[in-house]
Amino acid sequence: MIRALRFAAAGLVALALAGCAGESVWAPDEFVSRSTYVPQGPTTVTLITSINTRNNSGAHSALLIDGAQRLLFDPAGSWHNPGIPERNDVLFGMSPGYMDLYLAFQSNGVFEVRTQTVDVSPQVAAQLSQAVQAYGAVPAAYCSRSITDILSQTPGFESISQTFFPINTMEQFGALPGVRTETIIGTIGDEDDGSDAVLAEQVANAG
After folding, report:
1. pLDDT for 169
2. At a CB cut-off of 8 Å and minimum separation 6, what does 29 contact?
3. Of 85-89, 128-132, 162-166, 183-187, which range is least confident?
4. From 67's CA, which of 33, 48, 140, 155 has a CA 20 to 30 Å away?
């Protein structure tokens, strides 16, 4: 399935980029508590892969867990939003609107996003939720390594081997039974320039 994702900022969000070197970030308890988002439907795990369409190389991996609450594990990620609390690469409160912003960011310009979703038991979702929160801040270039490290120790995902490469992670995840795949294309910005800095400037200046 392919869907186009068009994002009009309209002054609703400000994105900021920061260097990622495994630096610890810890949002206050009150911010996290009031930002909790409880998803509807079955418990699922979704691998999110950003792909450079010019050379078909993997740019980034993230893991979305829809369990008792929604957590987005965005290891060494550069998407930030003042409305979303973060604790060491775990983002809380990722409602559908915020997820659209995140996916627009990841699929900007020459990039597209592949999402792969599998149903899991509430127990597995809870285990993954605990694992990503306990993992700690992830250094740059370790996005796929951290995700595959966690998944390889999770029931139902033991076939996944540790790797540094997002495309390899995506291929391994795609071999799991019952995976549902979606490709997301099209965002704001110059389609010939997919740099994060360009997108951040465009969003900040939109209104």
Report:
1. 98
2. none
3. 183-187
4. 140
The confidence score (pLDDT) of residue 19 equals 32
Nearest 10 degrees: Cα torsion 14, 113, 109, 83: 0
SS (H, E, C) 124-182: HHHHHHHHHHHHCCCECCCHHHHHHHHHCCCCCCCCCCCCCCHHHHHHHHHCCCCCEEE
Distance CA 38, CA 181 (A): 22
Distance separating alpha carbons of residues 83 and 71, to the nearest angstrom: 14
4 burial (CB, 10 Å; 0-12 / 13-18 / 19+) is: exposed
Whether pTM exceeds 0.70: yes
CA atoms within 13 A on the CB side of 170: 21
Write the CA distances from 180 to 65, 133, 149, integer angstroms: 15, 25, 22
